[in-house]
Amino acid sequence: xxxxxSSSAVGLGSVDWQLQxxxxxxxxxxxxxxxxxxxxKLHWEKCMDKPGPKLDSxxxxxxxxxxxxxxxxxxxxxxxLEQTQKSKPVFSESHSD
Length: 97
Fold this sequence. Notes:
Elements: H1 3-47, H2 57-87
Domain Tim10-like: 22-82
Subcellular location: Mitochondrion inner membrane
Keywords: Chaperone, Disulfide bond, Membrane, Mitochondrion, Mitochondrion inner membrane, Protein transport, Translocation, Transport
């Protein structure tokens, strides 16, 4: 194998890594969107016993409580994701040479 072949093989490895990373990120986004949808549905069913033109006080309190828990959970998950990303090797220019 000559040097041009080996350097293009390294370049392809870099592309494969980038594609894999992209797919992982997109998969995480999709998973997060599914969780948001499930939580929204769950909280709607829990808090809205009788839909009307205005929220009654118990429904409003229920939604405020659910949103607070959702924000806390989202922040926790974001922190965990950041910790995971920090522990993974970062892509550098040395991979593409």
